[in-house]
Amino acid sequence: MEHKKTYIRHTLPYRNNEIIVEGPVTPAHLQSLVMHPELDAFRKPRDQQEAIIEIAGLPEGRIIVARDSDTIVGYVTFHYPDEMERWSQGNMPDLIELGAVEVANDYRSLGLGSKMIRTAFEDEQMESYIVFTTEYYWHWDLKSSELTVWDYRKMMERLMQTVDMVWYATDDPEICSHPANCLMVRIGKKVSLESEEQFDRIRFHQRFMY
């Protein structure tokens, strides 16, 4: 499958400067930047930078970043699902996971999360994919945000709805382990009915629920 990647760049005014939202970016470009020290939700900032550099080099991988000069202050990742998870079953070439969304604390009031996600979907780049995201409450920054688990869930839903992702049912044990967890999905307009049906079979392993 050919993975269309069209570089898009936006500028947002910020204080006396500007923030650049851009992507999909190349590994070389990511190597020229530095990670903000607060981008540590998943691992140490330098280690996370190496992880997104690796994703950017994958045929299907794409990284959208927000940067203040040469400092990455936010990023979004897209890639094939992990081979250890049920979503990789069937090796669907058109099933892409919206993996991590992270914005440094000092930049969280600027709408960068939604801007980065919308940038990824511009120019119909994602219309050939089923894009999904799995939201688990234990990944959420409840402490810094001072939100309840339900308010954070609503915030994440609103974020994903900016690109028309909607809630989908599943019997996946991890998602079902807490009522705040959820699966959100967007099916591109060029996705075949066969792929939609295959995704339904992946969502439900207990056939009586499907």
UniProtKB/TrEMBL annotation:
EC nos: 2.3.1.-
Gene Ontology MF, one: acyltransferase activity, transferring groups other than amino-acyl groups
Signal sequence bounds: none
CDD domains in UniProt: NAT_SF (cd04301)
Keywords for the protein's UniProt record, in alphabetical order: Acyltransferase, Transferase
Pfam families from the UniProt entry: Acetyltransf_1
Domain N-acetyltransferase stretches: 20-173
Transmembrane segments annotated in the record for this chain: none
A biological process term (GO) from this entry: acetoin catabolic process
Protein name (Swiss-Prot/TrEMBL): Acetoin utilization protein AcuA
